[in-house]
Amino acid sequence: MMYEPQKEIELLVRKSYEAEIFGKFKKGTYDKKEDIGSVLKTAFEFYNNILTIHLNKVASIDMLAYVLSEYDHYYDLSIKYKKNELSEEEKELWNSRGSRTKRAIKFLAEKIVKRLPNNMCNEIDHHRELSYCWIAAEEMVALYMASQVGFSLFPDDCVLTISDGGNYNFIEFRCKKLESAFEKIPLHDFSTNYELSEVPPFDVSVQNDYFKEIFIDLFNIDYASSLALIQYLINCFKEEPSAVIKSFNFQSSTMIPALSQDYSEYGVSIEQISNLLGGFSLSKEKLKERLLYKPKQEYRALRRAFFEVEDKNEKVILFSKSMALEELSQLIRSVCFRKLPSEWLELNKGIEKSLANFSNYTGSWFEDYLIAKLKEQGFECERSLKKFKVNGKNLYIPDSVGDIDIVAKVGDKLHIIECKMVQFASEPNGYLDDFDKFIKSDKSYKSKFNKKIRWVKDNIDVLRENLLAKGWVLDSNIICEPFMVTFYPTIVSQFISDFNCLDINTYINTYVNKSL
Q: Known InterPro entries for this protein (predicted)?
């Protein structure tokens, strides 16, 4: 059963929260960004103070073990939720707090690590203190997730309402422009497409071709074997069916030499094992500057899941098995987007070049995949258009415009396609980053693609003649339709009106499979 804070503490925190808010703000609707920002800041600081005060009292290795154990409970329940296997009571609890609690658990675990070792009073009521910490972490995450994107991007379109304290959610933040956008993102359709979850760029054996030699140089085993070692370590811990605490731990001083011995035939040293695991670990030193509203920071529980603490002058690693396997999978998927742990990059700067090469491969694979899908349905395609033959002379698309990724005749239209293999955003700062890359920056994807669209419109006769010479059958008044096709669904697609912007799954199902 999922952990729930004590009801008594929830009521105490609630009363204090109401006193804090109503002591500074009147009931009513706020639509000025300065006023909204003031309310949000007050709310966030209220819970941050609670977390700081109570976590300083109670942070311990035992608390960390329990919190990580709860992650496994929530993970199991999230799987059952997706399979519709929860009881009605469990569904209600999951819907009210489940989705945000996984993030809150990670954040709370990070905060505990930052405070260890900690001098505690033995007379403290740990259950009571944990309730305070848990509530504060959940509410901080909820505030951050609900308001960060809207308030950062569209502050003038946001509304915050403070209603009667009798209403549990008496502070309501809304940004209608974003609400409708999130509702339209086809995440479910994408997530149920198994083919897209198992593509070659996410395959460790494919990645290994790009990183094999460097990892052998660093760790005496190749890239695939290095990741397999981490997975082997995670899976060698087996849960007792009757265990209350589901998290695991090991002492570095005994486990690392044991792993070195297990890999002795490859000559993997204790130092190499330590360096390898360091890229999957979090410690007090690494978490020094961790802030909730800066999730792009590297040192957090993303692509890392070993929490390193000190106990009686010994380094101890604690972890949740489900979190560790999740984050190892995230690490593997992030390689496509030029991300590997900084500890590994610092050991050999050549990894940066390998990441760039693999990123180029990933982009090419994405174009190949889309072309293959188009050709499966009999549609003619051309890729990487840069040069045209006109009346025996070469005509080049200007460098300031760039190559056209794909031109395809789909039905009675000519699709001008720009492919973007960008990382999936699941947190506010990821959404903000996408807005910057796609729309807001001077060299945004949108502005660059618009240059290509304008070039095609200005040179449609040249493009048509070039394709006719290659055997295409085109009407004299062929209509061009531009598409920016991303791999993952992205919220920015709802804010681009210049052309169609949609994910690969939606594009194929909407235009390719239905154009026959």
A: Restrct_endonuc-II-like, tRNA_endonuc-like_dom_sf
